[in-house]
Amino acid sequence: MNIKITGTGSYIPSQVTANSSFSKHEFLNADGSPFKHANEVIIQKFKAITGIEQRRYVNDQYTTSDIAFFAAEKAIEDAKIDKETIDYIIVAHNFGDIKKGTIQSDMVPSIASRVKHSLKIKNPRCVGYDVLFGCPGWIEGVVQAHAFIKAGIAKRCLVIGAETLSRVVDDHDRDSMIYSDGAGATIIEATEEEGGIKSHLSATHAHDEAYYLFNGCSYNKDADQDTKYIKMYGRKIYEFAVTHVPKAMKECLDKSGYGIDDVKKVFIHQANEKMDEAILQRFYKLYDKTIPEGIMPMTIQELGNSSVATIPTLFDSVKKGMVKNQEVHKGDVVIFASVGAGMNINALVYKI
User: Fold this and answer.
1) Spatial distance between the Cα atoms of 145 and 5, rounded to a whole number of angstroms
2) pLDDT tens digits, residue range 201-243?
3) Does the reported pTM lie above 0.85?
4) What is the 3-state secondary structure (H, E, C) of the chain?
């Protein structure tokens, strides 16, 4: 028995917000003081570092559970399965449902229960629960689905990563330009087909690193200080990621029994183009190798950072031929890797 991804689906919001949309924002420092540079300069530097040119935001009427449902429908259709045979619905997110114009997160019932309701699944043995694991949440959900199936507890799981970060950004924080919305879903199941999940690794660094990503007040001191927004220490996250993620990827690959030359694609959480390039460079350096051309697909330029949704939407897009000059084939060995709030890290080696 092997455990494989048999179906994928994604929801990419239709609302495109280009960098130029931020030209009239009032960006402030953490102490509330204005930036010395003009917005045009701030935006140019932002693009040079992150690679982001535009991002996607959901329409006003949608929430995280809505777009998770949209992606789930597509994955179920792609896998050609009966939805009533799903044993677990595992949804990775970080902020729950936040309706446009509100400041409170709604997480009861769980996003997974809402998705099950929207899918109209009647089977009570289909269990839904949420995973809060920062940006690596979707990979962690796949790891848990793998464990359930391997243990004989389940045969088929629906794992979703969905987020609407546009609802939790501080317009006065230049880091708000990084974040976007999206959802990706996968069916994970036992199969007699060759391939599947070969190894995985997860870790939480929370001694000094727990609050590198956190909820904080607006940088506008005249704003309501009881309203919280996603905040981060970007430099610390960058240094943490480029130090720890390559080592985790190597340990995971070495555990799989495959070598570095077997790897055809590396799907890294789309957080920051320069950071991802540095991670990949250090990963290959651990094997005294140079990076093969085209091995790391990227969609951050057009889609921004949608947290838990970046990897499943990227994989779905590449699998279905929607990313220019990128494709995967049956038998290819690929690596998934992510880093995010916690600080959490994980990696997974998978044979298509």
Assistant:
1) 11
2) 999 999 999 999 999 999 998 888 888 999 999 999 999 999 9
3) yes
4) CEEEEEEEEEECCCEEEEHHHHCCCCCECCCCCECCCCHHHHHHHHHHHHCCCEEEECCCCCCHHHHHHHHHHHHHHHHCCCHHHCCEEEEECCCCECCCCCCCCECCCCHHHHHHHHHCCCCCCCEEEEECCCCCHHHHHHHHHHHHHHCCCCCEEEEEEEEEHHHCCCCCCHHHHCECEEEEEEEEEEECCCCEEEEEEEEECCCCCCCCEEEECCCCCCCCCCCCEEEECHHHHHHHHHHHHHHHHHHHHHHHCCCHHHEEEEEECCCCHHHHHHHHHHHHHCCCCCCCCCCCCCCHHHHCECHHHHHHHHHHHHHCCCCCCCCCCCCCEEEEEEEECCCEEEEEEEEC
Question: 236 Cβ partners below 8 Å, 6+ apart?
Answer: 209, 212
**Helices 273-285 and 39-50 sit at what angle, rounded to 10 degrees?**
30
